[in-house]
Write a structure and sequence with these properties.
Elements lengths: L2 H15 L3 H33 L2 E6 L4 H16 L4 E7 L1 H12 L13 E7 L5 H14 L3 E5 H44 L1 H9 L4 H39 L4 H4 L5 H33 L1
Antiparallel strand pairs: 1-3, 1-4, 2-3
Helix pairs in contact: 1-6, 1-8, 2-6, 2-8, 2-10, 3-5, 6-10, 8-10
Keywords: Cell cycle, Cell division, Membrane, Transmembrane, Transmembrane helix
Protein name: Cell division protein
Organism: Altericroceibacterium endophyticum
Length: about 300
């Protein structure tokens, strides 16, 4: 191919594909980084919470009379202590229960005189908590404490885990949508550049130039712009993600800490701009080749 024609196509493609293209890619990558980070944090939180609560159960003694409630709680504790499959057992103190409920119900008074507070027993099993085992424990506890309610802690968390799972799919869908949008922007930019240089491309073909040579000339600026935009987007998205992580870490909550991003998570996040560059290069090639087939 003639050197001047090469230079002419390169300049024209740079002019057409430059401009807003790096910023479009940067915005898309930044959004994908933030959304993917949130999705993986939710995944970590759900996985850790499910693992922590999968072998735990709670016993509530619902008896209103305090002396009967204490007697049933002691009987339930005795039944659970005799079981070999119980690894840890603790009765939550009335003071702790009042402290947890006061933000919602106000001052409950000493001993919960204003509002009857159930006795609460936390138990952690040494083995997985199956439905059959839970039913067996429930039956033995209720025989000793008729007002007791025995529930697996994972049962309480199930609606939350389902909501978190839905949010993960939502985040995945948004990332996919942003990827499609990025590909569409590259497609339109490449076709616009090809349309503006149609006459020049026809001359190149007449002089013996190949389609691959033309594709490479149009693909290089796309890869360059996508790499620049991907780097900027990763810095922006990663920086905002770290800022939000620090804000949540200040809450000093065990639940929030369980959603912390690990090394593997950051490796996946770091691959997003690389995937954006690869997607842009592939889209540009397909777009240019489709136009060239129409010219021939």
């Amino acid at each position: 191919m003639n050197g001047r024609l090469k230079l002419r196509i390169r300049r024209a493609s740079n002019k057409r594909l430059g401009g807003p293209m790096p910023w479009v890619v940067a915005i898309m990558v930044a959004l994908m980084v933030m959304i993917a980070s949130a999705g993986m944090a939710l995944s970590n939180l759900a996985r850790t919470s499910e693992a922590d609560l999968s072998g735990s159960l709670t016993v509530q003694i619902m008896e209103a009379a305090e002396y009967l409630r204490d007697r049933e709680a002691a009987a339930a504790m005795s039944v659970l202590e005799e079981r070999d499959d119980i690894a840890q057992l603790r009765r939550v103190s009335d003071r702790e229960l009042r402290d947890m409920l006061e933000p919602w119900l106000g001052d409950l008074g000493e001993g919960g005189a204003n509002v009857p507070i159930p006795a609460l027993i936390d138990a952690r099993l040494a083995v997985p908590l199956s439905e059959a085992r839970l039913a067996q424990i429930r039956q033995s506890v209720i025989e000793a404490a008729p007002s007791a309610r025995v529930e697996a802690q994972s049962t309480w968390l199930a609606p939350v885990l389902r909501a978190v799972s839905a949010l993960q799919y939502y985040a995945l869908g948004l990332v996919a949508l942003l990827g499609v949008t990025t590909a569409a922007a590259v497609w339109l930019a490449a076709r616009s550049a090809m349309a503006a240089n149609r006459d020049t491309i026809e001359v190149v073909h007449l002089l013996g130039g190949t389609d691959d040579q033309v594709v490479r000339l149009f693909q290089k600026p796309v890869v360059r712009d996508a790499a620049l935009g991907g780097a900027v987007g990763f810095i922006l998205g990663g920086g905002l993600t770290l800022l939000m992580a620090r804000q949540f870490a200040a809450l000093d909550s065990g639940l929030v800490a369980s959603g912390r991003l690990g090394v593997a998570d950051w490796a996946v996040i770091a691959s997003i701009p690389l995937a954006a560059v690869a997607l842009a290069a592939l889209t540009a090639r397909i777009s240019v080749m489709s136009v060239l087939r129409g010219i021939r």
